[in-house]
Amino acid sequence: xxxxxxxxxxxxxxxxxxxxxxxxxxxxxxxxxxxxxxxxxxxxxxxxxxxxxxxxxxxxxxxxxxxxxxxxxxxxxxxxxxxxxxxxxxxxxxxxxxxxxxxxxxxxxxxxxxxxxxxxxxxxxxxxxxxxxxxxxxxxxxxxxxxxxxxxxxxxxxxxxxxxxxxxxxxxxxxxxxxxxxxxxxxxxxxxxxxxxxxxxxxxxxxxxxxxxxxxxxxxxxxxxxxxxxxxxxxxxxxxxxxxxxxxxxxxxxxxxxxxxxxxxxxxxxxxxxxxxxxxxxxxxxxxxxxxxxxxxxxxxxxxxxxxxxxxxxxxxxxxxxxxxxxxxxxxxxxxxxxxxxxxxxxxxxxxxxxxxxxxxxxxxxxxxxxxxxxxxxxxxxxxxxxxxxxxxxxxxxxxxxxxxxxxxxxxxxxxxxxxxxxxxxxxxxxxxxxxxxxxxxxxxxxxxxxxxxxxxxxxxxxxxxxxxxxxxxxxxxxxxxxxxxxxxxxxxxxxxxxxxxxxxxxxxxxxxxxxxxxxxxxxxxxxxxxxxxxxxxxxxxxxxxxxxxxxxxxxxxxxxxxxxxxxxxxxxxxxxxxxx
Amino acid sequence: xxxxxxxxxxxxxxxxxxxxxxxxxxxxxxxxxxxxxxxxxxxxxxxxxxxxxxxxxxxxxxxxxxxxxxxxxxxxxxxxxxxxxxxxxxxxxxxxxxxxxxxxxxxxxxxxxxxxxxxxxxxxxxxxxxxxxxxxxxxxxxxxxxxxxxxxxxxxxxxxxxxxxxxxxxxxxxxxxxxxxxxxxx
Lengths: 581, 186
Known about the structure:
Number of helices of chain A: 24
Number of strands of chain B: 9
Largest interface: A-B, 25 and 28 residues
Shape of chain B: elongated
Radius of gyration of chain A: 25 Å
Shape of chain A: globular
Strand order of the largest sheet of chain A: 3-2-4-5-7-6
Helix content of chain B: 25-40%
CATH class of the largest domain in chain A: Alpha Beta
Strand content of chain A: 15-25%
Oligomer: heterodimer
Largest sheet of chain A: 6 strands, parallel
């Protein structure tokens, strides 16, 4: 006679089911979705999942960060460089709330991510049990979707939905909260991917009439400019963007997250838009007669004063998220569509063209920017080391082929300005949220996602200390990331604003820093302090040549400013090249 | 210019959807004037009727943000002339006041209200209509001693021709087309 267990197993087999625990089902769902890497941190409520993970370590690699926020940022960076959704585990209560900054960061930057948090046993939910927090309520404003599972049987369907929602349309983070008893309870497991939800329609049929109108507007424009955003990279439309630009001869400006969507060295590259962007694309936004905005959302850091933004231009907005169209800037033609699909349909309708005199205006502006800002920033002969010259050297010495990770602030703006990106998805940065502390954990995820690339992180002495514990993760997994601390002993960007707008009153921005070389030593990461310009090149060469992780702590001009700058409230065309206090 | 808008929000019947909607309104500091939730004519689809006072530009933005919520099927924004709407109010009035002749009876008749319950202590008057009519009746009843007054949120039927089930059918069709488009893109 068969035992109960055998009967159960046989019935399950006949019906095409497997009889497994909720914890195992979670892992099987991830494998079905092609996941091989998870970032996370264990704790009481998620222990059943971690226990099962030991049996699956040949298929699922788990990276234990040193803080849940680090896991979230690392998983985001992994998603940004691989195009696969980032997966992150955390336990209930503080584990889950520690993720929030990372989730919000991914939400503002439209990164596909699945956060799985554990919850106390279902009978205790709502009772203020130990390590219970209402993570659904807490994460609701910063997730694309969230859900709580109390019955193990629901796990496959909800996880399938989570992947569908996170990765389609405008991507974003989703959070699945799973009660501990649902992880322990058995279920009849069968996985079916989700590709349809009645209430969620990520693919809108393309309005071909609008595409035709766009082509007419483009064919008749005299001073057109393309504004390319993150949507190009998310929809993998870099080639289509290049084709559109080369066929029409229209210059391409990019947003911060659009950097690397178009080669920085291309003759039609107009530069980087926004508060600390390039002179030409900002200034000429107000001269253009047509703006073709693709996969971007007219963020206030890009537009400056909306009342004085692009008044001479008609605007075409190609955007997958309809809520972004006409939100900040009223447009003349809206194309609610995936960038790639819209461009594929648009390219055949536009006429080959060239805008020599219009392009010349960009080059004139570039020359002005070079003479007044870039030259001094990248090739100074005297004074302390400048951020720009470090980034420029790294860019030249890597031929623009590295994956660049940044923290937030002056280090980020300088990296965005002076690195010449040649490969798509080669910049990992925190755009919408501007999260200090993003850089170090993000470098972990970026390197794991792109092990064959040189991954170089530019980070300030402030942001480095916000998530400095992730040096432990780098040590633990021997992750060969290259860390460059641009050390000015200040919270540099805030200090710059204090200098410019708060009468140089440096309130709480000067830092007393530890010996970063000694700290790196504690984590067995070789490191070098650079104080003189003469040693810089050799030091960077040493960093690049190192097989394992390496850290450079570079002394930077204490009161260096990032220029040009569009001052808050100013128009894009009032961009300041010089600031003399 | 701020004006009154009625939002008809069709959604899946899921826990938390109201919370997600109010988050969007709270962020923009928009007060909900009235709210009603119930099942719609389509099985499994919920209808939330919200009345808000804001600018046309703002209502368009929040409607799109609400429609973006995963479990929301469709949002319709209407001005008051595009819908047929009613509210219902119940008034609890002391029965003693009936003794003061037939004035109360006349008021009830004039306002097209009706008396639902009569007990020795109190009676309950029901009035269906627009907010202004209900307010006016309240003013007339107050001298008789209104013990309790409760008013519902707005319920609304739209004058538009395209009904939700037609829209749902279109969604299903779009889904089929999508599968083909994705194939061609590959």
